[in-house]
Amino acid sequence: MVVGSMIERCLWHPVIAADELGAAPLAARLLNEDLVLWRNASGAAHAFADRCPHRGTKLSLGRVVEGGTRLECPYHGWQFEASGHCALIPALPAFTPPPTHRACSFEAIEAHGLVWVRLQNSDTRLPAFEAEHDPRLRKLLCGPYTVAASAPRIVENFLDMAHFGFVHEGWLGDRAHTALADYRIEPTPTGFVATGCRAWQPQSNALSERGSVVDYRYELTSPFTAVLTKLPQAQGGYRDEIGLFVCPQDTEQSVVWFRLAVTDRVSSDAELRAFQHTIFMQDQPILESQSPKRLPVRGGELHCAADRASAAYRRVLIERGITFGVC
User: Fold this and answer.
1) Are the CB atoms for 9 and 31 separated by under 8 Å?
2) Alpha carbon distances (Å) from 161 to 122, 145, 200, 217, 229
3) In the chain, what percentage of residues exceed pLDDT 70?
4) Contact by Cβ (8 Å): 264, 138
5) What is 91-128 written as a DSSP string?
6) Where are the alpha helices (DSSP H) in the chain?
7) Rounded to an integer, what distance in angstroms lies between the CA atom of residue 306 and that of residue 21?
8) What backbone phi and psi angles, to 5 degrees, belong to 299?
9) In this predicted model, what pLDDT tens digit does every residue of 91-115 receive, in sequence order?
10) Maximum CA pair distance of the chain?
11) Is the pLDDT of residue 205 over 70?
12) Higher per-residue confidence, 247 vs 6
């Protein structure tokens, strides 16, 4: 097991929407490191450190060449294969670069509409989003949102229901219905599940026409990802699943995506995204106002019984040795 600040490098993190990555290389940032993402001829995504090992130029300023098999540096034209190995130095066309001539490459994979990167090889699994495989549910990606807050602050806010009547008044709650049910926390291999969560909402989703009590289930699927399930009130009723996927760019800046899996076949993509956008635009100024921006996991803030999901999340971060974005 990797301990200390290295554990985050062993996790899979989302870095860019899959449909944004086309023929040209794109820059991204993860855990204080600059990355370049590119696709090869077969469409597979690849991730390198955004630095040519020759003279330190950003590879994201280059281009994909040789029929989509190599990434070319914009400075001297060095060409790198998907493995990172330098295949050609144009100034020395007869020279065969040795194995040491290579770009720093990382693992990359596509899932849930995103490209995910792992900076250090490990046996950690991609965060689950089971609704992705349910053909009855419509899938939609919302974001990205760049937020001046640490990834743990964003995840904790997603797990918190007590703010609905204040931050999302008229949408997900109101001040006349702020009492929370006595929900339960159960540990899981990836974190925990919160069940028995109930909240009164004037508009629980884009199709709602009147208020109702909504049953929730929250699951922490990795230190920086979580899934919210809005359970139907009756057999065959409306059901949502919302995945929160956070890219910890720096200790106090993150990029956020939401993956919707819904039964709503009536609303347009734009309408579904607009509803989610409205909700997060209410959250963002609150998140960016919090002080400190990093989540204090060992004291410094007061707690109450309504914060049991937040308390459970902070315990998971401590137990897993997460140090990025916490204090």
Assistant:
1) yes
2) 34, 21, 10, 11, 13
3) 94
4) yes
5) TSTT----TTSB--EEEEEEETTEEEEESS--SPPPPP
6) 151-158, 164-167, 269-289, 308-320
7) 41
8) 125, 175
9) 999 999 999 999 999 999 999 999 9
10) 77
11) no
12) 247
CATH number of 130-320, picked from 3.90.380.10, 1.20.120.50, 3.90.1150.10, 2.160.10.10:
3.90.380.10
How far apart CA 87 and CA 59 sit, in angstroms, is: 15
Provide the 3-class DSSP secondary structure of residue 143. Answer: strand
SS3 of residue 320 by DSSP? helix
Rounded CA gap, 214 and 228, in Å? 12
pLDDT single digits (tens) 52-66: 999 999 999 999 999
Domain positions in the chain are 4-118, 130-320
Q: Which residues contact 81 (CB under 8 A, 6 or more apart)?
A: 69, 70, 87
Tokens (6 digits) for 150 = 């640490």
4-118: what CATH class?
mainly beta
DSSP code of 181? P
Q: In whole angstroms, give the CA distance from residue 34 to residue 66.
A: 25
The SS3 call for residue 145 is: strand
Give how far Cα 53 sits from Cα of 49, 73, 78, 121, 255, Å.
Answer: 9, 10, 10, 21, 27
Q: In the numeric block, which tokens belong to residue 240?
A: 């949502």
User: CB within 8 A of 57, min separation 6: which ones?
Assistant: 51, 73, 74, 75
* SS3 state of residue 88: strand
pLDDT at 20 over 80: yes
pTM for this predicted structure: 0.93
Q: Is 98 exposed, middle or buried (0-12, 13-18, 19+ CB in 10 A)?
A: exposed
- Mean pLDDT check: name the lowest of 139-148, 228-237, 246-255, 290-299: 228-237
Quick: pLDDT tens for 137-196. Answer: 999 999 999 999 999 999 999 999 999 999 999 888 888 888 888 899 999 999 999 999
| Contact in structure between 210 and 201 (CB atoms under 8 Å) | no
Instruction: Give the 3-state secondary structure of 44-73.
Output: CEEEEECCCCCCCCCHHHCEEECCCCEEEC
Instruction: Give the β-pairing of 212-222 and 225-231.
Output: antiparallel
